[in-house]
Task: structure prediction
Amino acid sequence: MEQAPPPDHQVQFRISGDRALLAVYGAGVDPAVNEKVRRMAALVNSIHHPGIEAVVPSYCTLALHYNFLHIRWADLADLLLDLEQRLDEIADLDAATVDIPVCYGGELGPDLAFVAAQNGISPDEVIRIHSAVSYRIYAIGFAPGFCYLGGLDSRIHAPRHPTPRLQVAAGSVGIAGSQTGVYPLASPGGWQLIGRTPLCLFAPDRSPPIPYQSGDTLRFRPVSFEEFEHLQQGAAP
Result:
């Protein structure tokens, strides 16, 4: 991947194939950097440039997919540098807190006991710790509606499965290393499954198709199996 960092400037640009430019504003999991990425994404979207086909914010990067018949990557980089000087024009972005009911353990969370044993605590303590924090959504990707969250307490970190499951049910809540998240669709997966939400987190015929966006926060709320079944009948957040 070609790199072209502009001189004396924090952002670095990387060319990704022939249709995308990646702007790198920092490294790692940093709420301040992620907020800058969100604001830059809002600015880019606000100008409706005909050569920009998609704007994809992530932890510390902003990917712009562009039509090279309308704009060159170097001109796109200059555009981003100019827009960065206008960040103050963007008002504070709305950020919602989305409640995610979760039935922990049992057949819905078959790896809860493993996560507890891995950390020398009880399953109830894993549930308490996991549901005590609001998790910022840093990025959405991998699958429609799949959130990359920050803020998992180190007391409940756990390794991935050595061999991924061939099928993980939609709504499964898992832990992998220092991350936690929810599978919005049934898919293969290697995360340690500690529970499941009855909510439908991705519905292509719904507007919007997912009930959150980057910058929002998720809050996991423990529910009983009876409440899980009741909510599952509605299947919508």
